[in-house]
Amino acid sequence: MSTVPAEALPNGALPVRAHDAEEGAAPLAPRARLLPAMAAVYRAQLSRARVARIPLLFVATFQSIGIMVLMRGVVDGGSEARAVVAGSTVLVVAFVALNLLAQYFGQLRASGGLDHYATLPVPPAAVVLGAAGAYASFTVPGTVVTAVAGSVLFGLPLGQLWILGAVVPLAGAALAGLGAALGLLAPRQELATLLGQLGMSAALLLGVLPAERLPEPIGWARDLLPSTYGVEALARTFDPHPDWPAVGLDLAICGAVGVVSLAVATWAYRRAAVR
């Protein structure tokens, strides 16, 4: 084993042996638990969204109300009016949770921002769930305003709008998971933006238009869209006597799709973070 004279070292310092360095090395911090890490990401994203996304939320709400005003000249009432109001309400969620989240994660991947999250001792699921929850929560004011405005415009009852407390988080989870997966899997930022726009357009065309007026092949595509079951659940509550078992089934399907889409988004985050 070779040795180095003390005179060759600066200030006469003695060489440090390997086992001495190992003994004095500080231990790594323990990995953060899922729930505290998710709450921290959620608060950070929600604070960022309040500053940067308020104008876009206004645009999403104004867009949905404008669509209902246009459809008012075509649809008189009945099941078609319920479908228009429910679809326009969930469209606000699609605009923010799907479209904007796809753009956010696409930009984060393109700019190297994922490297920052990868260095933090937080589970990948905490990053995805925290961001998805923040973007979904951010849609609450817009969905409430749109649902109330649509109910007044088409003469629908307001008494069951409390169901938004279930529709928004479940549809938001499904759409946010889809948006995050699109943004993380897209090879380029521009493609992530395009996919987010296409997803929102699908939610617009397949959610707002009454199902009975759609051709059968397009109806099949509508059944595959995560937001469809949130739209159906909300539309059923506008009936004079809602079919609550059917509402519960739609919400359960929406929740199951949300779990799957968030799991796919978490896998996509792991895949993108290690590249």
Keywords:
single chain; about 280 residues; mainly alpha; 12 helices; about 75% helix; disordered N terminus
What general form does the structure show?
elongated
Structural class: mainly alpha
Low-confidence stretches: 1-22
Overall average pLDDT = 82
Number of helices: 12
Percentage of residues assigned to helices: over 70%
Order of helices and strands: HHHHHHHHHHHH
Span between termini:
40 Å
State which percent range the strand residues make up: under 5%
Overall strand count? 0
* Main β-sheet description: none
Radius of gyration: 24 Å
Report on the architecture of this protein:
- By secondary structure, this protein is mainly alpha-helical.
- The chain has twelve helices and no strands.
- The longest helix has 34 residues, at 78-111.
- It is elongated, with a radius of gyration of 24 Å.
- 44% of the residues are buried.
Give the topology, please.
Blueprint: H1 18-24, H2 34-52, H3 54-72, H4 78-111, H5 113-119, H6 124-137, H7 140-154, H8 164-185, H9 189-208, H10 216-224, H11 227-236, H12 244-273
Helix pairs in contact: 2-6, 3-4, 3-7, 4-6, 4-7, 4-8, 4-9, 4-11, 6-8, 6-12, 8-9, 8-11, 8-12, 11-12
